[in-house]
Amino acid sequence: MESRVLPEAEISAILASKFVCVKINIDNPDGNSRQLLDKVQGNVLPFFAYAGPDGKFISGTSGFRDAAKFKADLEAVLANPALRVPPDVEKKLAKLAEQAAKDAEAGKIAALLKTAKTAEGARGFSESKDKILGLRDKAVESGRAKIQEAADLCKDGKFDEAAGIVSALSKEWKGGELEKPLAAAAKGVDRLKGAAKDPTQAKRLCELIVKECKDAPPFVEAAEAKLKE
């Protein structure tokens, strides 16, 4: 299982995003683990026991499972009613997902982030919740691409354009995942601009970017390239 199944990209992605995985020593399990393992039908290792956040047993398997069977096991667990958001919450999330799609298309990042925070607060699995968080993640990717664009503009000496991109994004992402990267990017733009204006200070300013702007990797890369010139 460890060499052939768990490393499969599709399997590892589900485990990483949906499960808290714990390896148990079958010869010396603690009390709670023993109770779960005792409910697994079979006597062939490995045992897989699935429990909800409340610790209650959901299902279990005994013996080797190929990737297809193991994926089916995981999907069956995720579909368990005990792990789904309540129907009334799912109905609200469905409406929020529709609005989130409109906000994402219109570039209303602040509204999208607010909806994503609400969705994250809903305990349990939900297709609508996944859609909302997926839209948020795409917005993050787009924002990071814009940070890269700003860094590339600085390489071409277009500092005002770069500053405009970073400034606009900073307003949208205040309190969000890109707040720190954008603060670092703003600092990077200013220092690269300063380095271009005063070559005698270029080395010092680029060294400061490398040291203080790690949250904005494209600017660190730009500064490191300049230091090598």
Characterization of this structure:
- A two-stranded antiparallel ribbon has the order 1-2.
- It has two domains: about 10-85, no CATH class; about 85-229, no CATH class.
- The model has no long low-confidence stretch (mean pLDDT about 95).
- Strand 1 (about 45-50) and strand 2 form a beta hairpin.
- The protein is elongated, with a radius of gyration of 24 Å.
- Helix 1 runs parallel beside helix 3 (about 65-80), helix 4 (about 85-105) packs parallel to helix 6 and helix 8 packs antiparallel against helix 9 (about 200-210).
- The chain is built from ten helices and two strands; from the N terminus they run H-H-E-E-H-H-H-H-H-H-H-H.
- The chain has helices at about 10-20, 30-35, 65-80, 85-105, 110-120, 125-155, 160-170, 180-195, 200-210, 215-229, and strands at about 45-50, 55-60.
- It is about 65% helix and about 5% strand.
- The longest helix is centred in the middle third of the chain and has 29 residues, at about 125-155.
